[in-house]
TrEMBL record:
The keyword Protease applies. Belongs to the peptidase M28 family. M28A subfamily. Residues 154-241 form the PA domain. Its cofactor is Zn(2+). It holds the Pfam family PA. InterPro entries: M28_fam, M28_SGAP-like, PA_dom_sf, PA_domain, Peptidase_M28. Residues 1-31 form the signal peptide. The keyword Glycoprotein does not apply. This is Aminopeptidase. It comes from Planotetraspora kaengkrachanensis.
Length: 513
């Protein structure tokens, strides 16, 4: 998710603008909500308590092979932790099971240089290498043999034809590991030629021009038929392996099977059932690590807000969701939205999503609800949510930036169903710019989350400040909309909500399509 700095928010927020901001009153209160309840909730939600949930998620991962990925005991233990906390707080909790295709590995992948000096490479899209899609299982050890490499790389992408012709393998020693460079032909042609030459394994590395250096793509082989383990590495790793006398050990042990995972849905016992305010975060991580920032942070912030909110009496029904299998393609939230009737969807006034709220090299990102930054707006009402988040940060005199509605997180199924949405995001693999470093602090030229989808996404991989500030922002908007969503718009059928609005003293609101 790429973001850009919101106009008028960096050092240009005047004292007048802050003073006029409804959500900026004393830093937290809303002009269209129960002011006292907002203040109390924000005060009750402390970063220290949010971090305790992260510590619990870390302990769960530590006891379960270092991961909380859906379809494993680590995720199930995370589910049980969240559900227990919510039930104890008095919520009606539903555990929603669904099946999905688990695509991972049985044992951790291995790419290790054994000579001239030992070095173990990190697996994952933010590491040193990945297995190519459709690579078969297998292990190999042997000398690395470069195949028609262009080092240093040519000035233009696709200037390398490494491995594209059978003649590239003249003199190739059978049983060696074929090292090839990205470029010209597709990966399958390269690997097929390596197989025909007797390679025991194949490694393709990124070509080396700007934008073609990292493990930042999804390399696929295009179907069955490959018989040797096949990896894709960064350009840096490829250069290292191209050195004379290099030998490696490789192992790939994939598993693809149907498994069951779960959503956790908690609903307040009080509040208008025809006007539901919904907050959510995905509870799962990736197989490579504990998933503490991605997305223990969003889950922990949402959970703590829910626990503290249990002590209030909202006018609107509050619903908190913790999604399974987001990392496999938003499967949990998609399953949930698909399972609702049209009438049930219409009762959801809005959805707030929190995915990565404590990145160590953070920016304060707000989803671009009105579309003015990226050209893609959310459903009507999303602009109001964005504005209310902006008012929160303005009230704290903190900078903020827009982040695009790319469909990359669990708001996707909601906006596809026409439900107003918004949320917060502190950044993943995108590099922090010099301008962002000047405004938000941190380090330019490195990712907003240097441990994104990696083994190092541990309790050490968070910003306490971002976690605390964003948890307060979650609490502010939760309490604001718990008492009044008229600024968002009235989506449910008028007849279904008329009695409830009258009972709560609401004036009829214009409907928003």
């Amino acid at each position: 998710m790429r973001s850009r700095l919101s106009k008028g928010t960096i050092g240009a927020i005047t004292a007048v603008a802050v003073a006029l901001s409804p959500l900026a009153l004393s830093g937290t209160a809303s002009a269209h909500s129960n002011n006292n309840s907002v203040r109390k909730l924000v005060k009750a939600v402390s970063g220290k308590n949010v971090k305790k949930h992260l510590q619990a998620f870390q302990a769960i991962a530590d006891r379960n092979g270092g991961t909380r990925v859906s379809g494993t005991p680590g995720f199930d233990a995370s589910r049980d932790y969240v559900a227990h906390k919510l039930r104890s707080a008095g919520y009606d909790v539903t555990i929603q099971p669904f099946e999905f295709t688990f695509d991972g590995y049985k044992t951790p992948p291995v790419l290790k240089r054994t000579s001239p000096a030992q070095k173990t490479y990190a697996y994952g899209f933010f590491g040193d290498y990945v297995a190519m899609g459709e690579s078969p299982s297998g292990a190999a050890s042997g000398t690395v043999q470069g195949v028609d490499l262009v080092l240093p790389p040519g000035p233009a992408a696709n200037s390398s034809s490494s491995g594209c012709e059978a003649s590239d393998f003249a003199g190739f020693v059978a049983g060696s590991v074929a090292l090839m460079q990205r470029g010209t032909c597709n990966f399958r042609v390269k690997v097929d030629n390596a197989m025909a030459a007797g390679a025991s394994a194949a490694i393709v590395f990124n070509e080396g021009q700007p934008g073609r250096t990292e493990v930042d793509l999804n390399p696929v082989l295009g179907g069955p038929g490959v018989t040797i383990p096949s990896f894709f590495t960064s350009f840096e790793v490829g250069q290292e392996l191209a050195a004379a006398g290099t030998a490696v050990t490789m192992n790939w042990d994939p598993i693809v099977e149907t498994r069951t995972t779960y959503n956790v849905i908690a609903q307040s016992r009080k509040g208008d059932p025809n006007n539901v305010v919904m907050l959510g975060a995905h509870l799962d991580g990736v197989q490579e690590g504990p998933g503490i920032n991605d997305n223990g942070s969003g889950s922990a912030g949402t959970l703590e807000v829910a626990l503290q909110f249990a002590k209030t009496k909202p006018k609107n029904k509050m619903r908190f969701a913790f999604w399974g299998a987001e990392e496999f393609g938003l499967l949990g939230s998609d399953h949930y939205v698909a399972s609702l009737t049209e009438a049930e969807r219409a009762k959801i006034a809005l959805y707030l999503n929190f995915d990565m709220i404590a990145s160590p090299n953070y920016t304060f990102g707000i989803y671009d609800g009105d579309g003015d930054a990226f050209g893609t707006a959310g459903p009507p009402g999303s602009d109001v949510i964005e504005e209310d988040f902006e008012k929160f940060f303005a009230g704290r005199k903190l900078p903020f930036t827009a982040t695009a509605f790319t469909g990359r997180s669990d708001y996707g199924p909601f906006i596809a169903a026409g439900i107003p949405a918004g949320g917060l995001f502190t950044g993943a693999e995108v590099l922090k710019t010099e301008e962002e470093a000047q405004i938000f602090g941190g380090t330019a030229g490195i990712p907003l989350d240097p441990c994104y989808h990696s083994v190092c996404d541990t309790i050490a991989n968070i910003s306490d400040k971002a976690l605390d500030v964003n948890s307060d922002a979650i609490a502010t908007l939760a309490a604001t909309y718990a008492f009044d969503t008229r600024a968002i718009g009235d989506r449910a059928p008028a007849a279904a909500k008329s009695a409830a609005r009258t009972a709560h003293g609401h004036k009829p609101a214009d409907s928003a399509s």
